[in-house]
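Hey team,

Filing this mostly as a record. A colleague (T.K.) asked me to run one chain through the structure pipeline before their review meeting, and I want the input and output archived in the tracker in case anyone asks later how it was produced. No errors, nothing strange. Just documentation.

Input sequence:
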Amino acid sequence: MVPVSFASYDFQNQEFCLGTDGDALRALYWVEQNALLVADLHLEKASFFARSGQMLPPYDSRETLERLAHALRLTGARRVFCLGDNFHDAEGPDRLDPHATGMLAALTRATDWVWITGNHDTKGPAPTSAALPGTHLVETTVAGIILRHEAVPGETQPELSGHFHPRLRVGVRGRTIRRACVVATKTRMILPAFGTLTGGLDADSPAIRAAIAPARKAEALVPAAGRIARFALWGVPA
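Output structure:
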């Protein structure tokens, strides 16, 4: 895990770490809260597409939960905040196979688990099953930081969110490389998608710019080789 500053002007005692590609991929660890934050698991995405004849490998939920379990072992976190789009649709919990169901039950028993509701969690005839172990919230505030699924334009309080699956495109030696990233301003972070079958949106897309308005500058953060690589998106020198 690589330390990263966030909202430090107002929260001097809060420490955060970003997971690198080699360990807790795409997760944020909040040291003082001993909490792991992940966004956009999109569990059971493959089974959702299979219903319409688009066959994908049916192991996405298992792989996502295995990586989440690894992140918990790595950090020792006792709390988990899932920042929305936990399942790909509202009926997803009912499609989990017994193995994945057992994995999720074990994880939620071992931690204080909070499900933040995302837009995919409400798609379908009923919201994501309230029978899922843990606490279900639309959003919450912890130590003065708002945790929600989608960034709210004009928000003035520190905020952590997901929803956009930000990815950074950079040119290296004539090739284009894409990496999941965090989009960060002084007081706001948009986390990348944690789920196995999730795509991504360019970090400097108009949709992301609008979501964190009126921020005058933003960076893409990519953990790599034990450090944080920072890439200017707008408003700051490259």
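Quick notes for T.K.: The chain has a mean pLDDT of 85. The chain has one domain: 2-234.
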